[in-house]
Every structure is written in C-alpha cells, then in structure tokens.
C-alpha cells in the first residue's frame, strides 16, 4: 500500500466515523509523522517478524542500546537488563500541542525522548519548568512510588517521539534482574532531586504572582 492509497483508506474510515474536520486533520498529521519516523514503506521491517524471537530482540537492542545506556539511571547496568528494558519499551508519537502528562494524573510510566521538543509546565501551564529534547527522560517518579500523581504537565511543542517504559514492566525486570537494583536507587535519587527543583520553581512562581 502506497502513501496515497493509505491516506484514502484513512479518510474513508474517518468519514464513516463522522469525525469533525479538526480531528480528521490531526489524525492525518499524526499518520504523516508516523510515516516519516518509521519509513515510507510500512512493510520495510516486516522481515523482523519472520526471524526468531531472540534474533529480533538482538536487532532491537543494537538499534536502541545507545539510547538508554548513556542515561545516568542505567549506569553500570548489564546488557541483559538493558536488553529487556529495550524490549519492554513502547513507541509513542505526539503532535504539537498534544498532552503527554497532565498535572495530578496517576503516573504509570516513564518516558524517553527520542525526537522533538516537549515542555514541562505547572498546572496552570503558565510556567515552563524545563524543555525536553532527544536524550532526555521524565516521569521516572512513577516507577518507584505507589499512587504517584504527576507533579507537572508535559506537552509536545513540536512533532515528538518517545519510548515509554511502564511501571509494571520495570518492577518485573527488577525481579528478573536483582543485580540491577542499583537502577532503582539511582531513580529514587533523581526523583528526589526533581521534586525539590519542582518545589523551588513553584515557590518562585508564587512569589511572582504575589
């Protein structure tokens, strides 16, 4: 299926769903970005599903290892643990303006930015805490705390791509790889640091309002 045929299929489907014009355009934009990220030939990676599971895992690991190995939270982690982390990650695409996290929402995953620019903001979205770009990560507090509520709102400023690691998968990996408990310790340390920085920013914001 080529690009034009695929777009026609999507348009026909959205007409049947009776979607409004704004939503239809956002869907088209999202698909166009996905096409650009994953390649024009949507079947170009079909061979990955025709090789053994172990070999496919090795391919994924080779492609993504550098993405996570350089992150401080995985410092010292062995390749077996990193391999499993890569395999558990889920790819997510975001359009400009899309919400990735909302302040106060229940946290169940951590995000690794691979493309684009995102903004972490306060609840009112009047103060930008940080700009997130390729190589950055956020949401790590959710992996180590129970009933974790998001302390910031994160929105995509450009077309963005993130790899997502779910809390359930992370905790399961720690059980499988007990020697990687150091990763959890590093996460706790970084989470505390971010929480402190967030409190400082909130205080400054409150003073400015006053």
UniProtKB/TrEMBL annotation:
<dbReference type="GO" id="GO:0044877">
    <property type="term" value="F:protein-containing complex binding"/>
</dbReference>
<keyword id="KW-0813">Transport</keyword>
<keyword id="KW-0406">Ion transport</keyword>
<protein>
    <recommendedName>
        <fullName>Cyclic nucleotide-binding domain-containing protein</fullName>
    </recommendedName>
</protein>
<dbReference type="InterPro" id="IPR018490">
    <property type="entry name" value="cNMP-bd_dom_sf"/>
</dbReference>
<keyword id="KW-0812">Transmembrane</keyword>
<keyword id="KW-0472">Membrane</keyword>
<keyword id="KW-1133">Transmembrane helix</keyword>
<dbReference type="GO" id="GO:0016020">
    <property type="term" value="C:membrane"/>
</dbReference>
<dbReference type="InterPro" id="IPR018488">
    <property type="entry name" value="cNMP-bd_CS"/>
</dbReference>
<dbReference type="Pfam" id="PF00027">
    <property type="entry name" value="cNMP_binding"/>
</dbReference>
<keyword id="KW-0407">Ion channel</keyword>
<dbReference type="GO" id="GO:0005221">
    <property type="term" value="F:intracellularly cyclic nucleotide-activated monoatomic cation channel activity"/>
</dbReference>
<keyword id="KW-1071">Ligand-gated ion channel</keyword>
<dbReference type="InterPro" id="IPR050866">
    <property type="entry name" value="CNG_cation_channel"/>
</dbReference>
<dbReference type="InterPro" id="IPR014710">
    <property type="entry name" value="RmlC-like_jellyroll"/>
</dbReference>
<dbReference type="InterPro" id="IPR000595">
    <property type="entry name" value="cNMP-bd_dom"/>
</dbReference>
<feature type="domain" description="Cyclic nucleotide-binding">
    <location>
        <begin position="73"/>
        <end position="174"/>
    </location>
</feature>
């Amino acid at each position: 299926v080529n690009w034009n045929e695929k777009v026609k299929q999507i348009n026909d489907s959205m007409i049947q769903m009776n979607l409004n014009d704004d939503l239809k355009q956002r869907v088209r934009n999202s698909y166009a970005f996905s096409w650009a990220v994953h390649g024009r030939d949507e079947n170009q990676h079909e061979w990955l599903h025709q090789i053994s599971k172990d070999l496919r895992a090795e391919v994924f690991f080779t492609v993504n290892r550098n993405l996570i190995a350089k992150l401080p939270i995985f410092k010292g982690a062995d390749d077996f643990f990193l391999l499993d982390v890569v395999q558990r990650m889920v790819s997510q695409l975001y359009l400009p303006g899309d919400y990735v996290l909302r302040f106060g929402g229940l946290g169940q995953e951590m995000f690794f930015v691979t493309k684009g620019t995102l903004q972490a903001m306060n609840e009112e979205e009047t103060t930008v805490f940080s700009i997130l770009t390729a190589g950055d990560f956020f949401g790590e507090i959710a992996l180590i705390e129970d009933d974790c509520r998001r302390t910031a709102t994160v929105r995509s400023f450009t077309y963005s791509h993130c790899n997502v690691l779910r809390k359930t998968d992370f905790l399961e990996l720690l059980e499988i790889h007990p020697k990687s408990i150091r990763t959890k310790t590093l996460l706790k340390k970084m989470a505390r640091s971010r929480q402190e920085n967030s409190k400082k920013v909130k205080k400054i914001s409150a003073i400015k309002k006053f």
